[in-house]
Write a structure and sequence with these properties.
- The protein is α/β, with parallel strands linked by helices and about 425 residues long.
- It has one domain: TIM Barrel, CATH 3.20.20.370.
- It is built from 13 helices and 16 strands.
- Strands 2, 3, 7, 11, 12, 13, 14, 15 and 16 form a nine-stranded mixed β-sheet that branches.
- Strand 9 (about 205-210) and strand 10 (about 215-220) form a beta hairpin.
- Mean pLDDT is about 85; it is low at about 1-65.
Length: about 425
Amino acid sequence: MRSFSNRLTAATATLSLAGVLALAGCSGSGDESPSTSPSGSAAEASGSAGAEPNSEASGTPTPSEAPKDVKPAAAPKAPTEPLDSKVQTEVWEDNAQVSHLFFHSLIVDADTAFKDRESGKGYADYMVTVDEFNKMLKQIYKKGYVLVSPRSLGQVDKSGKFVTNELKVPRGKKPLVLSIDDVSYYEYMKGDGFATNLKVTDDGVKNTYTDPKTKKTSVGDYDVMPIVDEFVKKHPDFAPYGNKGVIALTGYNGVLGYRTSPSVYGPKSDDPNKNIKQDTATATTVANALKDDGWEFASHSWGHINFTKSSPERIKQDTQRWKKDVQPIVGPTNLLIYPFGADISGLPPYSGAKYNYLKHAGFDFYFNVDGSTPAWGQLGDGYLREARFNVDGISLKAALDGREAMKSFFDPKSVLDPKRPKSISGTS
């Protein structure tokens, strides 16, 4: 099994936007299928895509339980003004300049995650711990940010032109988009101190977590989604529009902790999941509950491919696979989050075969990565492109080494988990 440290995005995650877009092609293999690629994305680093599914770990029912026919719910609405009409507001001046923070799944057991020499480096690079995230969240809130859907910023009109909305923000507040990548609880993460899946409970959507030391399984707030949900219950003004964040999903290892991909786990696959129908129904129920609570979904490609390096045909094949395996669970989306931050263009506006296909496939919002500035966006004729600020060990180290952008959101030194390696990231 390949370790998480094989992921090759470190070089791009700390560059300026221009550097990211110019060098994104160096960030990973991308053009090969997850099961054969020797290195590259977090998804590809998880090992064989056809690895044996673990139904017990994912909390799936026994085969005797009949699967339910569950359909994906509609995406949550994207209001342009607070739901509480009594809140005093002011219009945000530039919808192309809205900050966007992104995370990966949170480390629950830091001792276990950072222990292994190889996988620990990758986790230190690309993840933050539950302790760190809780500290960050409190400071982000105190800085005056409020959560907003990217779709509240604008939409494509009947003529195909992207038009911005008049976004009304609570007076003195700043809009913030929050997203979480790779919410699949990949097979490679098993036993490394992460949550196992998301599940619906009487208290909302929670995580299943198995302690790697005691082997005891519990249900609680072990990842971004349930932690934010609980934070908003205490601070409803943090989510004045009812929106919380964007969940970016690949498909090859299933979604939300369930091995649902027919391409990998179906009855004709090399290693079928005998519970795939029930797992798919359960995952759809979870996705519906998340949407009901203000979460949205984005495509992160099916195989975590590199869009910079991939041919238009490769992008088409991967997108069609995502729509076949993932869309029936989460519903259609017009949000595309590039793996590696590997964009289809540099600074110039979009054009050409890749963009033409992606627009035809229904994408209106595109997200790359830039950890050097608090906000960057580009309003095109038919799209809105936005840079996301990566919050991870790499950006924490860059901030401690003098980069100032992170301080717009929180104080990097004060949020560090004492269990994080002294190197902060695994790269060094």
